[in-house]
UniProtKB/TrEMBL annotation, chain A:
A GO biological-process term: formation of cytoplasmic translation initiation complex
Keywords linked to the UniProt accession: Cytoplasm, Initiation factor, Protein biosynthesis
PCI domain mapped to chain residues: 219-392
Subunit-level organization: Component of the eukaryotic translation initiation factor 3 (eIF-3) complex.
Species for this entry: Tetradesmus obliquus
GO cellular component, one term: eukaryotic 48S preinitiation complex
Subcellular location: Cytoplasm
Sequence similarity: Belongs to the eIF-3 subunit E family.
Official protein name in the record: Eukaryotic translation initiation factor 3 subunit E
Transmembrane portions of the chain: none
GO MF entries: translation initiation factor activity
Known role: Component of the eukaryotic translation initiation factor 3 (eIF-3) complex, which is involved in protein synthesis of a specialized repertoire of mRNAs and, together with other initiation factors, stimulates binding of mRNA and methionyl-tRNAi to the 40S ribosome. The eIF-3 complex specifically targets and initiates translation of a subset of mRNAs involved in cell proliferation.
Domain of life: Eukaryota
Coiled-coil residue spans: none
Automatic annotation (TrEMBL), chain B:
Keywords of the record: Cytoplasm, Initiation factor, Protein biosynthesis
Location(s) in or outside the cell: Cytoplasm
InterPro entries referenced in this protein's UniProt entry, alphabetically: EIF3C (IPR027516), EIF3C_N_dom (IPR008905), EIF3CL_C (IPR058999), PCI_dom (IPR000717), WH_DNA-bd_sf (IPR036390)
Transit peptide is among the record's keywords: no
Protein name: Eukaryotic translation initiation factor 3 subunit C
Amino acid sequence: MASYELSSTLARFLDKHLCFPLLEFLQDKGVYNEEDIMRAKIALLQNTNMVDFAMDIHKELYQTDEVPATMMERRTEVVNRLRSLQKAVDPIIGCLSNSNVIRNFRHDRAFNLQFLKEEFDIGPEQIEALYQFAKFQFDCGNYSMASELLQAYKPLCTTSERNMSVQWGKLAADTLTQNYEAATEALLRLRESLDNQSFATPLMQLQQRTWLMHWSLHVFWNTENGKNALIDLFLQPAYMSAITINAQHLLRYLAAAVVVNRKRRNVLRELIKVIQQESYEYSDPITQFLECLFVHYDFDGAQQKLIECESVIEHDYFLTAIKSEFLESARLFIFETYCRIHQCINIDMLSERLNMDKEAAEKWIANLILSARLNAKIDSKAGTVVMGMQSSSMQESLAEKAKQLSVRTFTLANAVVGAPATKA
Amino acid sequence: MASRFWTAGSDSDEEEVDASEEENSSSEEESSSSSSSSSSGSDSSSDSDSDSDSDSDSDSDDSDAPKKGAARFLAGSDSDSDSDEDRRVVLKSAKDKRFSELTDTCDEIRNKMKINDWSAIQGLFDELNKRLERARKVSEAVGTPRVYVRMCVELEDFLNDTLANKDLKKKMSSTNAKALNTMRQRLKKHNTSDEFAEAVTKFRENPQEDEEEEEEEEESSSSSSESDTDGEREETEKRPAGAAKKKDKLLTMDSAEITYEMVAKKLREIVTSRGRKGTDKQEQVEMLQFLANVAKGVPQKLEVLLQLVGSLFDLSPGISNYMKVGLWKRCMLVMLEIMDTLQANEAIVLDDSAEPSEERTAEPVAGEDGKVRVWGNLVAFVERLDDEMFKSLQVIDPHTHEYMARLRDEPVFLALSQKVHDYLARIGDVRNQPKVALRLIEHFYYKTDAVYDAMRKLTMLQQHFYYKTDAVYDAMRKLTMLQQEEAAASAAAHPEGAVAAASAAAETAAAANTSNEPGEEQTADDKVALPVPLDFSMDESSTAAMKRLVGIVFTHGDERAKARAMLCTIYHKALHGDFHSARDMLLMSHLQDNVMLMDISTQILYNRSMAQLGLAAFRLGLISEAHSCLQELYGSGHIKELLAQGMAMGKFQDKTPEQELLEKRRQMPFHMHISMELLESSCLISAMLLEVPAMASSPLSVKKRVISKSFHRILDTYNRQTFTGPPETVRDHIMAATRALMRGDWSGAYGAVSALTVWQLVPQRESVLDMLKKQLKEEALRTYLFSYSAQYRSLSLDQLCTMFEMDEKAVYSIVSKMMIAEDLHGSWDQPTRTIVMHSIEATKVQSLAGQFADKATLMVELNERAYAFRTGGLRDDDDMGGGGGGRRGGRRGQDGQWEDDGGHGGRGRGRGPRLGAARMGLGQGGQDFGGHRRGGGGGGRGDRGGFRASGFSSNMTSGLPDRFQRRGPYRQQANPNMQALGSISRPGGGVGGGPGGGSYNRPLGGDRRDRGL
């Protein structure tokens, strides 16, 4: 199963801190050797400021109370830096915590700076320190604090590059504090600035779009309307091309979102096209499932893939929550497509296809018929489902066309004959 | 001989066999190692030089000199060489007489040439020929006297000059001009005739032989290299010796006396006289060669050598002709020597921005960074050499040994470029490095693996052969056998590389053979041996080489270089079957958007890449991709020109001679060609696979989408044939396959397609044929279902499986796909495993009525659009057209405007398809209604109608304010709609509807035509 495990691929596009939940999840699932994961965690933490945490893991991993000297050194280093930063940042925090000051801020950043300078004697160094401090706090795992600090810093930052990093930081911090509402907002704003930034090279834009999509996974799969937003975002041409160029594995999430989201059937065609186009680059059971079902009409294959999907989804940090939903929708997909091209189906066969026992399948179908989502009848004696036919005769369609023509011609004639007279 | 000497001097002495050469080389080493002019070193080097110069004389004097090596071969061409004299002593006096006659006539001709008197020349030329005949009778020689050949060449040159000089031509009297033309024709015939062609070319390559005779030097030499050639020339040849004598001043000096200053002065003299009228280029080259040997210090030597390369280039006759192979090789040798010198002396930097050497009188001292700067531009030389090689390959007949021999020079060139490239990398010249890298890429990109390997082995073989490392030789011999087989196999497998591979094989064979008789290789190779430097080795695989070089171009190159490198990579990837990444590269680089803005040769490269991409897609079974890649190339009808693989035999367009010349200059050498036949087959088969089911699906439909126009055209002609013979050409085969496929007979189709001989050129023949078989089965199934499903009430899955020999799953999948797309009106009955048809197949009347309704809709739409344009605002239309139809029309109208707006800038890119659709609709109209009764003619009229339609809508876009003219047709068009409605709404009146429409349509078409004119 590890072959379809995407964590390592995803990690390349994620922030260190955003990788952490993934590792935790993997540890729970026990896909990989636990020690390996612990080591990975330490490696991950090495460059952050969460030294204590790293130490804990180290102890657990090697079953000792000894901690390597490098870690201790790092710890003192971190603490020192914390102190110095704290000192540098104190005045500005004090001043910004005063709500009167904030109220005096305007949209004009230069004005804000001027204002601070005049009123409180806070210069660029302090403001820079504020940013550094926020970054430091973030590295320490103190995400909510970081988020607040960044919020405070935002009206003061002047360069657009810095502005971008602030937005990225905000998104990460909000995501990690599981404040998804704020994160969604941050995401939206970030996306806007990404699309609007004109200074970046196309390559950089591509890179950043890819990052954004990866980071957004955390947000989208955890919010109510996230799947919709995910589909919207991923199907944007710019982002779609980023997927096809840079991160084909994201198709899995897009596919899952589309399958689960019944209202978005309309994008299915587009999705299938992309999946097919990229199948030489990336394919996993989920995309293969769609391919089987909508390209090859290979229902046995789809069935097979669905079983594989189950375990893939189970081991995917983002998708595991929607497992049953996905399976249900997928089943419906199969059934619907099946019905479209059959006029008579054996229930036994169907139950096998749907991975249900016969009773349940019959009930399920009956439910579908009842809820008017299926135009069919069950022939219980023969054990078959007979589809109702909806055929329109040629005559009807011709009449329809003619009617339409007459209306259009009439209006046109009216316009041509009537209009010049009135106009002239 | 001189060149032989050079290489010996430039390489390490381990390889030396000849004792005297060893001596030379060691002295070279000395002089180069001690750049601060060690007198003894330079002394010995100049000594050895004068040795080589004196070779010629000593041999010419000494008629008993033993003949060996090249001499034997040259005896044939130089009839009366001294060495032959002793045999024909009796005839001597008569012979002399004849020759003096010949010479006299020649002198006379020269005189006439000076006054430009062509009629006199013509007469004299006749006389000359007569005399030649007589001289021949006397001398019994096989060859042609050199005086005569020389005359021919001079005449030809003069003729060309005169022809080029337009003013002169105008001034000529009519008789003179006539004579000129006659001379031109005769000389052309004469000089290219078998008898003289060889002699003439030989003379052109080595004209200096005559000049060297003048250098009289007393020193005799001990060395006996293959310099006999110089000895064999006419004693009777008289040349004004004055010029030669003058330059000899330096030559006769003792080399020890020659100072830096003298050399510098002479060099400067040569540089300033270069390119002036009346400068003897040949003489300059000679002088420079001499100077190179007496130069003091390495930097000066480099200067001289660089100048020498330039002068050698001057010898070649201009941009339209290619440099003679011998000359090219000499250039290569000098270049290699330069590179060796540079390699040996790291402190010297070649720089085209360094100060020219003119002001210096003493040796340049090292700058503060320990570097000595010398003016020179290696890259320009490399590029020139590459161009010349390309040009020669363009001109040489690819089916000759000459061509192969030329191809064998490629490794040396690669070695040189690689050296220059490494050198540039060493000195950190990132501006020029990509240029050389690109040249290398362009030598690699079209090579398949087999060809590349052959080339690599050839390189190794050449190295070992020329340096006579006997131990390796045996091993190589064995390898040769292997490689020959391999190359033969690859030649069969790769159409493009066949020649290269074959030549590589031939080369190794030749190398193996000639090495048995080492004396002969010189003559075989245009008297200039061109060894591949030992320190050169090609990368293991072409992919690795490409990757390395492309990286350099991408990081440092300019836009054009990047684009070319990208295209080469795409070609290379496609050639190696990596279609997807090649396609992605093409799409991501957005090359297709701006390729039209690039230079023509890049566009050709783009076309080549495109063709290769199509072939790759075809091999992988990606039919529609292959089709879209190839369609544009093939459908244009100018594929030869687009790929620069031959001139089009256009009957209709006539090109000016200049255009033709330009086009000739663009041609690809044969070994780089992409097989036309393969392209044609791939394109047509793809078209067939796409088109046949599409045609079957909608035989009568209005909105017929033509996928491949050229395919339709061919099919139409094929169908019109009264008698169809067995297939011969590619087209015949594919048309036969199409016929079969239309009936759903896949095995017949496969038989016809697989009978094509062109598959032998495809490396993965088996897999391609398998793929084709599979595709044919699928498409046959689809076609069968389209065509005959109406005849069935139900169809069993098993029966379909047996009919098409496909497995159940595949059939199921295809049929399901058709059901979903509503191509097939039926559905599966799962318990019985059958397809049950829902026969809602319309009757003929119904379908015709449907078509008519569609056409009427189209007209209404057009009218709505037109109205919208006339009233100005599209929104108005939207508001007014209350019904759903009206609104839709309005929106379409908007679309239309959108496209038209775009059309101003983007040249109707959006407009194309739209007009096409309109045209098709109307064209069909003509055929269906008008043509129903009147048989033929419908098509033609439809076409015209279509043409009108396009003119009509473009009229709208340009917004001409001519209301009257426009209102007319609108009304008329509005009418048929009514009529059509009438006929449709009347139940049972469908029969009347057809003719009614038809009868209307005809005048409409005529009407249009009138207005169109």
